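Worked problem 6 (solution included).
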Amino acid sequence: MITYKGLNIFYMDFSNAKTQQEVAQIIEESIAYIRQQPGHSVSAITNMENMYFNNEVKNDFLHFLKGNKPYIKISSVFGMSGLARILFNGLMKITGRDVRSFENMTDAQEFLLK
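Solution. The predicted structure is:
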């Protein structure tokens, strides 16, 4: 959990995760927190800098994003590479989620204040 300009934000750090297993572990830890919160109450930010990404990770994120939808108030991500961003945009369409992507953490945090 981090605080930015008075807003409590659940921070998920996938940066430098180098295997599908590392990514899956972070997802499981995030699920344990998010799905215990009241509906539509969580402001979340995700750091994806230098994160490993393949089809298995994409599928893990698909289930993660769908399952979190009832709990998330607003969410943003930052640090995605070109390929990850293309796959991420596809996931947004499939899951119906509106998670905005930014180049850096400050811009991603500012979006959460809206």
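Discussion: The domain at 2-112 is CATH 3.30.750.24 (Transcription Regulator spoIIAA).
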